[in-house]
């Protein structure tokens, strides 16, 4: 009975936040939120599955998607990810996770380097132009996120997690930072291997640039995942050699219409992995493909994300160390 009350005390406030998030998403428009880099995650595994990951998030990189899933991760994990984005933008991220009797803790970072941009200004004479043209004055905007996560399994079926993160956007002429929060729950239904999840990301106060307020890129996600087959069973029975996981996420962003992510992961003896996914109702993103290999305690993951004929594609790479 006490455990049920504890679950309600966590779930009810989260559900209220989810409802408020949905209402707010219906009254705002595109281009009204700051910290857009938070929408682009660095890890390869989830991106290979089309980011349909909130009900799957069982490794260190799950901290980007659903902190509640960290209770299924290893006792100790380290993960590093990187990719080159468009227009010379580079992104990297890292997570360190450790499990204790009090729960699972993780620290994370994400750094977005926009690259060097040539400084320009108005000139009133040829002499000023010539002096400026030879100065080669560059500036380098960047974004930074540092986070601390706590996750705990309340019962064998229910877990929750919360992340507090410091986010900074340095645009050289304007700079601001904010404390934002992620909150998530994960429920293992007990029917086959079906899991459901609910997550709120980037919840916090507005950010001010040039005396104008912008909302954080808050988003509500509801997720589902199950195995078709695997060592722990599934819709089609038990298979001790192979696992096929199917997942889907429904997203309600503050600054866009509803979006949908679907994905799958096939594993052979949890050593070789193939992944695929698709994003629906995105401006450019669509097909995702990925692969991974585990050797001892180390794991390497790769993801290919197709955008469109103009932007083409992005490749991501992740290296992790896992100690069970």
CATH architecture field: Beta Barrel
The CATH homologous superfamily is termed monomeric porin ompg
CATH topology group? Porin
Largest sheet: 14 strands, antiparallel, barrel
- Integer tally of domains: 1
Give your account of this protein's structure:
The chain is mainly β and 324 residues long. It has one domain (2-323): Porin (Beta Barrel), CATH 2.40.160.40. The protein has 3 helices and 18 strands. The strands form 3 sheets. Strands 1-2-3-6-7-8-9-12-13-14-15-16-17-18 form a 14-stranded antiparallel beta barrel. A two-stranded antiparallel ribbon has the order 4-5. A two-stranded antiparallel sheet has the order 10-11. The longest helix has 24 residues, at 2-25. It is elongated, with a radius of gyration of 21 Å. The model is unreliable at 20-28 (pLDDT under 50).
Which tags fit this structure?
mainly beta; 324 residues; two-stranded antiparallel ribbon; single chain; 3 helices
Provide a short characterization of the protein structure.
The chain is mainly β and 324 residues long. It has 3 helices and 18 strands.
Draw up the topology in text.
Layout: H1 2-25, H2 44-48, E1 76-84, E2 90-100, E3 103-113, E4 117-118, H3 126-133, E5 138-139, E6 142-153, E7 158-170, E8 175-188, E9 195-203, E10 207-209, E11 212-214, E12 219-229, E13 242-253, E14 259-268, E15 272-280, E16 287-295, E17 298-306, E18 313-323
Antiparallel strand pairs: 1-2, 1-18, 2-3, 3-6, 4-5, 6-7, 7-8, 8-9, 9-12, 10-11, 12-13, 13-14, 14-15, 15-16, 16-17, 17-18
